[in-house]
Amino acid sequence: MDRLDHVPPDPAGLLHRSALLGAGLAVDEIDRLVRARVLVPVRRGSYRLGDDQPRSPVQAHLLRARATVPHLAPGSVLGHVTAALVLGLPVWNLPLDRVHAVRERSTGGGRNRHGTSVHRAPLPADDVRELDGLLVTSPARTLVDLARTVPAEQTLVTVDAALHQHVRPRPRSEPRPAGATTADELSEVLSRFGGRVGTPAARRVIALADARSESPGESRSRFRMHLASLPAPATQWEVPGLPFRTDFAWPEHGVVGEFDGRVKYGRSLRSGQDLGEVLWEEKRREDLIRSAGLTVVRWVWSDLADGSMVARLAHGLGTTRHPVTSRGTPRGGRRAT
Predict the structure, then answer these.
(1) Where does the pLDDT of residue 8 fall: very low under 50, low under 70, confident under 90, or very high at 90 and above?
(2) CB atoms < 10 A from the CB of 170, how many?
(3) Spatial separation of the C-alpha atoms in residues 131 and 149, rounded to whole Å
């Protein structure tokens, strides 16, 4: 253990087997430290210290990505869900057990080995960015690759977030967020994929994207509405005569909808304010919206899963609820792998 103290982790917090051996540790010593959980394998030949536990599955994935990069073939860059996380974009319900990379090759399939999936596809220089010392696919390319390969609901969460990052107000001195993109940039990347597998599905889900969506819950809500064939809502709708806006609105029906993700109340806390005060203000806001003659429909995460949101909205809108039969691509479509 004393000799381990003289082998500092790299900037990512990784200790590499080659460095440990170079510091004089024997193979059996390294194995003993692994069994004692002093060293925890991140990838073959790379470890983290046992007391340096990643705070989330996302952090654990990013650590594995950094450990994987030196083992990728020349010309490979991080892509798909891994690139999305490096770019700071949210993902929902996507497996994080494998590091994903893209390698230039116009024909042939990908490879899966040692916890890494390498996708082979054309990779022009414009589709590559460097961020924090890592080469990753650009935001637009990342989103198109995701849209071609994963279910639509999961994709929409990330596409909405990237579009919102671009339009979100920020000081002029603040650079464009790393994960931000535009509809035009997405269209340009899509145009280069032609008839490749998954492209029609990608076009459909990207057509559903909305830069005004401010959270994964709002994106998933809108997707559930789409699958149930409910009327398309206005988003971030300003209530006439009141200083409020609602997540969703159907003004012609006199109905507004609010996704009630509790985390947003925490974000609303001002210095010295407690959660009870925020909840009281939210109730007062809702009472004022109702006093304007509007019906307010609220839902939470569980209502998305069991269909309660769709049922209540269909009742409020006076429409027929269409059964939700698919959690994937709207109206079919093959996906790439």
Answers:
(1) confident
(2) 13
(3) 24
